[in-house]
């Protein structure tokens, strides 16, 4: 292709593309954009070459009186990165509190039979079945086997800035305390010392 024909083709293409880059209400000359320094140019003139960008709206500028409000953030729940000693400490506190609560109910004559041996708690409830709770140190979890809801694995999850935590089932975000309250009508949350 001869050079003159290539020049004509490129000019035609530029003319065809130019209306796409401009809106009727705001036409900016190429010289205004190229002669203005990016730091001092008004926002409406700051565009990248070969771009159809418009002015940045919503960004704070010195002449705005009200900055945009940040949306409120909800507290985050994350699985805690526990070392093995911390895991054992937290799991043992929870299991000891649960054992004390179930033994109190057993002593009061409730139809509950509780046993705790080698890190495994077995809770027999008349009319419901047998629940089994045990620690799983390799996974840093507490496992529950329920005759009503089946097997579940609970991770230690901290809320917000890490001040409080609970054993949470990852699939539905329910806590171990909530499940025991719902199925056995025993409130363990009041006895948590974590």
From TrEMBL:
<keyword id="KW-0408">Iron</keyword>
<dbReference type="InterPro" id="IPR036524">
    <property type="entry name" value="Frataxin/CyaY_sf"/>
</dbReference>
<protein>
    <recommendedName>
        <fullName>ferroxidase</fullName>
        <ecNumber>1.16.3.1</ecNumber>
    </recommendedName>
</protein>
<feature type="compositionally biased region" description="Polar residues">
    <location>
        <begin position="62"/>
        <end position="76"/>
    </location>
</feature>
<dbReference type="InterPro" id="IPR017789">
    <property type="entry name" value="Frataxin"/>
</dbReference>
<dbReference type="GO" id="GO:0008198">
    <property type="term" value="F:ferrous iron binding"/>
</dbReference>
<dbReference type="GO" id="GO:0004322">
    <property type="term" value="F:ferroxidase activity"/>
</dbReference>
<dbReference type="GO" id="GO:0006879">
    <property type="term" value="P:intracellular iron ion homeostasis"/>
</dbReference>
<dbReference type="GO" id="GO:0051537">
    <property type="term" value="F:2 iron, 2 sulfur cluster binding"/>
</dbReference>
<dbReference type="GO" id="GO:0006826">
    <property type="term" value="P:iron ion transport"/>
</dbReference>
<keyword id="KW-0410">Iron transport</keyword>
<comment type="similarity">
    <text>Belongs to the frataxin family.</text>
</comment>
<keyword id="KW-0409">Iron storage</keyword>
<dbReference type="GO" id="GO:0034986">
    <property type="term" value="F:iron chaperone activity"/>
</dbReference>
<dbReference type="InterPro" id="IPR002908">
    <property type="entry name" value="Frataxin/CyaY"/>
</dbReference>
<dbReference type="GO" id="GO:0016226">
    <property type="term" value="P:iron-sulfur cluster assembly"/>
</dbReference>
<keyword id="KW-0813">Transport</keyword>
<dbReference type="GO" id="GO:0005739">
    <property type="term" value="C:mitochondrion"/>
</dbReference>
<feature type="region of interest" description="Disordered">
    <location>
        <begin position="57"/>
        <end position="76"/>
    </location>
</feature>
<keyword id="KW-0560">Oxidoreductase</keyword>
<dbReference type="GO" id="GO:0008199">
    <property type="term" value="F:ferric iron binding"/>
</dbReference>
<dbReference type="InterPro" id="IPR020895">
    <property type="entry name" value="Frataxin_CS"/>
</dbReference>
<keyword id="KW-0406">Ion transport</keyword>
<keyword id="KW-0809">Transit peptide</keyword>
<dbReference type="Pfam" id="PF01491">
    <property type="entry name" value="Frataxin_Cyay"/>
</dbReference>
<keyword id="KW-0496">Mitochondrion</keyword>
